[in-house]
Design brief:
Layout: E1 3-7, E2 10-11, E3 17-21, E4 24-28, E5 36-44, E6 48-58, H1 84-101, E7 125-131, E8 134-138, E9 145-147, H2 156-167, E10 173-178, H3 191-204, E11 211-215, H4 223-226, E12 232-237, H5 240-248, E13 254-258, H6 261-269, E14 277-281, H7 290-299, E15 303-308, H8 311-321, E16 325-333, E17 343-350
Parallel strand pairs: 4-6, 11-12, 11-14, 12-13, 14-15
Antiparallel strand pairs: 1-5, 2-3, 3-4, 5-6, 7-8, 7-10, 8-9, 15-17, 16-17
């Protein structure tokens, strides 16, 4: 494979640096925008190429020493070689770029990214894998495991669980390690940023609202902190265990429905006053289905707050929804420092 010299121009969504050779984009992990590097081409197509770094000829002032001995081999983290302030700049720029490229939204009302108070030791759970006596994470771009004794981005309690697991002769399989016990339902992984996310959603809800429809509500993570702002709350989620947890301490204001979100939204939204309704969306990474986007545009609630763990599908969905809604703000949050993952919250108001 040939060696090329590249000027890294940008960091693509997903974490790889982008340089150009004779106009062709070359993607190189563990690089930083502004660096001059030598790289080995490992895979080449007509429009792009993949490469691995050989040497950093001119390092960025943002380059730091990664604290994790597995960094570069483990498939989890992408940014430990970049100082945290610049990680935030990269992620903000990526959100703006993906809105322009995928959503065709050029005037993104982007608010400053919400940082994580803890850049390490923040994950309250991890999933590790065991195979033939090896316990750890998958290697980068591979289904082979790397043996991990301690994960720097996991909380101390999680690393104690990992040490305990490694001390036992466990069968091959997948193991989710948690900082605390509780129902096995979806919850946010970074407690401090999850708190900031709740505060942001509370701030975005306009005054004088009657009904909150919380789609993909889980155990009521948002609904429970918004209860004082509404006369009635309806939560919908396919996970019956999460709905059972939401119903455990529900007040008379709250109704939680276990079932298909699409059919639940259709039946609830058609019978309500849209002018005093807030629709809260927190879908999985795949985003909203075409049918759910159509239901939202047909019923046109006054306010939509869309929480996303995938800016690409958020941009796609908002590209459709802006036919009926004004995008008031988009706020990125760094739920997963050192990784390429980005959380974002969009605030929409119906045009009427």
């Amino acid at each position: 494979m040939r060696i090329v010299d590249l000027q890294i121009e940008d960091i693509a969504f997903g974490g790889k640096g982008v340089g150009r050779e004779h106009g062709k984009a070359v993607f190189v992990p563990f690089t930083i925008d502004g660096e001059l590097i030598s790289a080995k081409i490992t895979r080449e197509k007509k429009q792009l190429a993949e490469a691995e770094i050989v040497d950093v000829q001119k390092p960025s002032s943002h380059r730091v020493e990664p604290p994790c001995p597995y960094f570069g081999r483990c498939g989890g983290c992408a940014y430990q070689h970049i100082d945290y302030a610049h990680q935030l700049e990269i992620k903000s720029r990526q959100v703006r770029d993906v809105f322009q490229r995928i959503g065709k939204i050029n005037d993104v009302p982007l608010r400053p990214i919400v940082p994580s108070p803890s850049q390490y030791s923040y994950r309250n759970r991890v999933t590790v894998h065991a195979e033939d006596g090896v316990i750890g994470y998958f290697r980068r771009d591979s289904h082979r495991l790397i043996d991990v004794e301690r994960c720097p981005i996991a909380m101390d309690e999680v690393n104690r669980e990992l040490a305990d697991l490694r001390a036992r002769n466990v069968p091959d399989g997948h193991y989710t390690l948690r900082a605390r016990s509780g129902p096995r339902i979806f919850s946010q992984t970074n407690d401090e940023v999850a708190d900031a996310l709740q505060r942001l959603v509370i701030e975005l809800v306009p005054p004088g609202q009657d009904l909150l429809i919380d789609a993909y509500c889980g155990a009521g993570f948002f609904a429970k902190v918004l209860i004082e702002k509404f006369q009635k709350i309806v939560g919908i989620d396919w996970d019956r265990f999460a709905i059972a947890a939401a119903n455990k301490n529900a007040t008379g204001k709250e109704t939680y429905i276990a079932g298909d979100v699409e059919s639940g939204l259709r039946s609830v939204m058609q019978t309500c006053d849209k002018d005093r309704m807030v629709l809260l969306l927190d879908p999985p990474a795949a985003g909203l289905t075409v049918r759910i986007r159509e239901i939202i545009m047909d019923t046109a609630p006054a306010t939509v707050i869309y929480i996303s763990c995938n800016p690409s599908t958020l941009a796609r969905d908002l590209g459709d929804l802006r036919q009926r809604f004004e995008i008031r703000s988009v706020t990125p949050l760094d739920m997963f420092p050192q990784t390429a993952e980005i959380e974002a919250v969009a605030e929409l108001r119906c045009h009427n």
